[in-house]
Protein 1
Amino acid sequence: MAKFTTSRAVIGEFYRTLEQDIGNTWVPGCSMEFTSDQESETYAWLGQSPAMREWVGARQAKGLTENGITIMNKKFESTLEIPVDWIRRDKTGQIQVRIREMAERANSHWASLLSTLIINGESAVCYDGQYFFDTDHTEDDSGVQSNKINTDITTPAAPTLSDMQTAILSSTQQLLGFKDNQGEPMNENAREFIVMVPVPFMSAAAAALGATVIGQTSNQIQALGSLGGFTYRLAVNARLTWATKFALMRADGSSAAFIRQEEEKIKVSALAEGSEVEFTHDVHRYGIKAMRNVGYGYWQRAVLNTFI
């Protein structure tokens, strides 16, 4: 383990660990990233572009349905205080461990923000004025649509391999059927999906997605991938508080279920050698700061499935 004697070395170690990573691998798959240069950004979800039609007579221009949401940037920070004597005495690399932990926690921040968004999806409003996970979404010619469905099983808190396969397939079917505001299929080209489950569902979900024996009941998901070109990625989210639910999200579209908005990337500052804090309290302080937030994007890119 390295021994840090200067604040420059501490900051360097933090950035080496951080590398401006977004953390959990599922984050980019289910969210769109936008940069911001002001206090808030407004996202106008203007329906879908018109589908091709036979040109008969004059062109038929279609207007856009104006809906939108505004996301306010928030300031986030984390500050670590280290006594100067600890720095001088540290021979076992404990400070390096703490610095790396701080960077790793920073890398998990997007996952933390998005997980809260997902958990609150049944009670928080998205761009169409409905809850993000709801049973009565409707826009112009879309008809009434639901991205909140149920699967009836014997033990809702302990689904079996077969239960998970049935639920994953029904969620996929539901998502593929969504239509846009012009009545056109919205996910007909979807081929990649994220299956996000709470920790207690890990075993059943992994077995459901990982079965490989052709011809057996436990092979439905693999067969779907072989025949239809569908692929599924398992995301075990330890932050989910669900006991009987999981979510399926599209991971390959140009738009996504959620928005990541960033005004200022993570930056590190220090009050260290020669500072008033060192003189008065005999400590060094290392702080990180970011300006960012998250919000709901397209509800049509996600389905919540509850076992009942």
Note: The first strand starts at residue 31 and ends at 35.
Protein 2
Amino acid sequence: MNAEHQRVKLNDGHFIPVLGFGTYTPEEVPKSKTMEAVKLAIDAGFRHIDTAYSYQVEEEVGLAIQSKIEDGTLKRDDIFLTSKLWCTFHHPDLVQQNLERSLEKLNLDYVDLYLIHYPVPMKPGEELFPTDEHGNSIFDKVDLCATWEAMEKCKDAGLAKSIGVSNFNRRQLEMILNKPGLKYKPVCNQVECHVYLNQNKLLDFCKSKDIVLVAYSAMGTQRPKRWVDSNAPVLLNDPVLCAMAKKHNRSPAQIALRYHLQRGIVTLAQSYKEKEIRENIQAFEFQLPLEDMKVLNELNRDYRYAPAEFIAGHPNYPFSDES
């Protein structure tokens, strides 16, 4: 089954492909590899591409999409493109500016989905990670609801077809949902989610509010040196996952992705290798029986690969709450 036909409806009426291709690129990886990987992903059948201003690869993502439009592989309407508002642009008067910067880099007129990357505002400016002389993050005070109102204006302006959030906990979602004069609900909440962090409670809450949960690090993580503990467990080496992969004649990555898809979670996959990219999209080709889903559910250990320690000192730090 081709990925472009596997879509779910968002609460604003638009549709999102359930399997997406992630483009976060660690500092140690050349950005040119991202451009080649996006082309490979499109050729393999991916039609949902996820990027962000802070990944600093929007230009490469845009070039890859443009080249596939020019060679007749697809039209702009065939691609669902997500980008994200960075923490240093939370001020309401900076939100559209950040989106316009992203659109310029992507060479696109609109994004299909625009997300608040983290619920934590940082000092405005050109630095992605502003710090003081002691290396501590410099935060800002901005009402999340005011940032959301500016996101709504981006949707009204046609710069983003849908708007949502990322890395929000239940409390922060409720803050937006209960905002007086709310015009648009977030269509999704993109969070770290995998068999070691299955997010069952947050998933149930989001489903109850007609908000789609989107999973990043669904297969574990690329283990970028800057953000992930080098001693973190390698999820795709998990013996239970590997045994199940052998049983179904699939890869551990395919099992990890299929687990999410069957839970109704929109799932992001990432690789730079053509073989793996093609394998990942084959997660549509099989079903896991209920007993296997239960076994995978029991692997949960509430383990977070990406605790975002750079925002840990802020009152809005999202990962202190249970869900």
Note: The chain is about 35% helix and 15% strand.
